[in-house]
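re: that complex we talked abt at group meeting.

here r the seqs, copy pasted straight from the sheet so there may be weird spacing, ignore it
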Amino acid sequence: MAHHTETGESFREQEAPVRDYQEGKKPTQEDERAKKFNDLERVIRRYSTEAGQLIRILQKAQDIFGYLPEDVQAYIAEKLEIPVSEVNGVVTFYSLFITEPKGKNMLNICMGTACYVKGAQVLMDTLKEQLKIDEGETTPDGLFTIKSTRCVGACGLAPILVANENVHGKISSGEIKKIIQTFRKGESVENQKH
Amino acid sequence: MKIKSIEDIEKIKERHLPLIKQRLGYRNGLGLTQIMVCSGTACSSSESREVRLELEQELERKGLQDRARVFKTGCFGFCQYGPIVMIHPGEIFYCQVRPEDVQELVEKHLVGGQVLERLLYQNDSTKERTPSIEDIHFFKAQRRIVLRNCGVINPEKIGEYIARDGYFALADVLLHKNRDEIIEIIKKSGLRGRGGAGFPTGKKWELAAAQDLRPKYVVCNADEGDPGAFMDRSILEGDPHSILEAMTIAGYCIGANQGYIYVRAEYPIAVERLELAIGQAREAGLLGKGLFGTAFDFDIGFRFGAGAFVCGEETALLHSIIGQRGEPRPRPPYPAQEGLWGKPTLINNVETYANITVILRDGWEWYEGQGTATSKGSKVFSLAGKIHNTGLIEVPMGTSLRTIIFDIGGGIPGGKRFKAVQTGGPSGGCIPSKYLDLPIDYESLKEIGSMMGSGGMIVMDEEDCMVDIARFYLEFSQDESCGRCTPCRVGTKRLLEILIRITEGHGEMEDLEMLEELSYDIRDASLCGLGQSAPNPVLSTLRYFKDEYIAHVRDKHCPAGVCKALLEYTVDEEKCIACGLCARTCAAQAITGAPKQPYRIDPEKCTRCAACVAKCPKKAIQKGIKKDVGNYGKTGIYAGPGGTEDRATL
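got the structure back, here u go
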């Protein structure tokens, strides 16, 4: 376990900004990051008492950071006293975990069968064309990320676009263009249809 | 108050029974109007929450809050016509209620005492509007056993579940029965696993109960990964306590004190309702220590999936629950022998659990009388795709596809022809029209090359290309293959490559043989259910729609007009009025033309988005077979129309 203690110390050094922040200095980007690590620490403390909660911790970590960069994975591995490779193995296995920062708005096209036969591919093509990026990519301005998602289970309303958390049913290419424009204007869209 | 005896739950039942009875159609002079608003995922995404809040506010504005109350309820199954609002007494069924309609609805129905015709369900063909749920064709052929509480109770109130005889089965089991008796009842009922493979549930329980190792665990598999299936989600959202009760009974029978529900993170409403239900059950003493005053303890925890289809496979699920990569392992040992942390673990699917309390309440004799010789009870299917009424239905086992698709589902919209129905998700197959009258159960579906799966049914019409559908499913399976065993990891990749080749017009006739051979290899050599069933979509489409494959390979033609690489859009020069609308619409700038001259589409630039087709006022743009078929790749083979014959002349 010598290895663990070693890297553990190196981590404590990285945590230094936490102390600065607590001393009431002007918050910087680094401070914000330190605050996130603080939140993560709390999550880990809450769940690590129970066995087998790695996935839950990773989900919470992703909620905090928006994605799971290498240092976050290493931090979690350290705290749980498991190899980083194991954490990374889990992160890369599940499709909900991402290791690159995502855009401000997630546009998910449901690619379940029901949506597919109702033209989800056309919607995906529209999205790609409108934003000039490919699936899984983020626009250079950091506003949008496109993803395809597995069935969200609202097949009665196919085809479906999930914009951030909102499910938009029976959507058309035209509506997608409108939603993109609304987001561009910095407004959050409410469910437009129905 | 902690519930300690049957009398305690009787009291709760009595308190809530008048509400429930009125909802079931009794005229019990309650003096209260109950407004049930569906709060399932589908209705929620069409603003049912806003409708509910608006209703509450409107009642307050009109000073009606003492005479009428608004309740959340679970899925009615009629998702396409959501949000659904049902008003009791009278069982008036309103469809597609929008927040703007609320004022008029309250004014007319509650103040005026009249039915608001405008919002009633309208029959598409007769244009008649019907106020009663029983007159709607969609509900006529259904028998709701598993979904008995969805749409009746408020899933967020434990009292309403108890009023529907909830937790009575548990009380009876704990206080009056021994475990072998219960397992025997489940075995005799003939209940089989609803997750897909149809393993006899009683046998599973017996095997888990026979293990000596302690502790044991009970797991509920709520990782509903099949695209197009949402019955488990609806049960969890509409009747969460039925799952908790059944898991507790299972725990008692096998000797476990801890249960886990493994649920998809994509189902936030289901998770929320479950969390609430678990909290209420703990508070009422229906979960926790010393249930009903006995020495039996049981509690239930959560584990979340993180988006991996393979985790629906039970051994993979076990790995995922303990926070590892969800990779399957060979069986035996079965999870009932060696499961979570190496301990005996009973894993059942949500819908399977939802059957347990019904069997215990109404008796195995009754249950055994439902369904077919080998498959008992009912099955919930989710209908989707090219069908009039999409949604969730429950029918007895042995119902024919024709009844489901044309009777309940209302047939194919737009006067199109039925082509196939896909059951069982990526593990199932496409069933052609000749089997429409086959009574469906586990065995019959298997015989015709598909499977029950979790119960997703996607209907396809003449505009769906079966080769493309096979490719779609293979893409899914390939993407979701965990990579643990080679036949699945490499085999599905190769299968997919061949299918892509065919849909892009580069296929050879030999490819069809290769597809079949490779499919059998993958099926026979893969480690888990995912790999073993991944070739099913290919095999079933090859079996029933071989002509479509041949058309793609030999004639380089996609009969359904789906495969883009085999299409070409052309302007009918006689119809073209040179308005230029198409050229302005085209994002790829593939259309050129000049005033008074017919426009032309450059096939090189054309992305086949069909935007121009929609814009053309004269319908002059046609979809056709790609005419010039050039040299394919480095092979130098001219694979023009006519295929092998032409090739021979070269």
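couple things i noticed - The mean pLDDT of chain A is 82. The radius of gyration of chain A is 20 Å.
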